[in-house]
Amino acid sequence: MSTDPDTATAPTPPSHRPIRSFVVRAGRMGPGQARALQTLAPRWVLPFAPQPLDAAAVFGRQAPLVVEIGFGMGDATAAIAQAHPQNDYLGLEVHPPGVGALLQKIEGAGLSNLRIVMHDAVEVLDAMIAPGSLAGVNVFFPDPWHKARHHKRRLIQPPFVARLASRLAPGGVLHCATDWQPYAEQMREVLEAEPLLRNTVEGWAEPGTRRPQTKFERRGLRLGHGVWDLVYARR
């Protein structure tokens, strides 16, 4: 979980290129991560498929399904799945080192309620996630794209939020977090404008009440950075 350009939106030029939820950049792959990708991915990584996911068949049970978009190195993802065994979790990430790292955590902790799809989140949501099927969506610390000319690359934009809201079941929760206040304010404007969503609290949610702190977040807090959480529910 970090402010990682691999989980942010790519610029959309004036053409018909579809929106994407990430920018692919080179990253260092450790030997353990590479080994996990080779040996563990067949068990825990689901292939992208242009058809709705049969979560009951994948997880072997009927349970609330929560999607996390851009899980970085997967520290918080694994912790959440371990703390909430009653839920099933689907992590979406395209960054190979992060997928390898989370695979190591899945195997090490024996997490049977967590799977990964290594594919663009927009395409996964459109093709594999049925409308009204999710208990929750987590988007923690997406790249804030600090420069004004790059703001259009930010992940939390009205079309993407509308797509997320449509996949939530009534009462399902969209939880976003960022350590960049201008982005937090934009997120709140976008979420407030989405008619399918309502804020679950007055203003900002209390950080850490629904998720563990990440290593990235703890480092930022030590440096005096703020953290803003937004928790909205499907009407």
TrEMBL record:
It comes from the Bacteria. Keywords: Methyltransferase, S-adenosyl-L-methionine, Transferase, tRNA processing. Substrate binds at K147, D179, T214, K215, F216, E217. PROSITE patterns: SAM_MT_TRMB. Pathway: tRNA modification; N(7)-methylguanine-tRNA biosynthesis. It catalyses: guanosine(46) in tRNA + S-adenosyl-L-methionine = N(7)-methylguanosine(46) in tRNA + S-adenosyl-L-homocysteine. Its EC number is 2.1.1.33. It holds the Pfam family Methyltransf_4. Gene3D superfamilies: Vaccinia Virus protein VP39. One of its GO terms (cellular component) is tRNA methyltransferase complex. One of its GO terms (molecular function) is tRNA (guanine(46)-N7)-methyltransferase activity. SUPFAM superfamilies: S-adenosyl-L-methionine-dependent methyltransferases (SSF53335). S-adenosyl-L-methionine binds at E68, E93, D120, D143. Belongs to the class I-like SAM-binding methyltransferase superfamily. TrmB family. Catalyzes the formation of N(7)-methylguanine at position 46 (m7G46) in tRNA. This is tRNA (guanine-N(7)-)-methyltransferase. It comes from Piscinibacter sakaiensis.
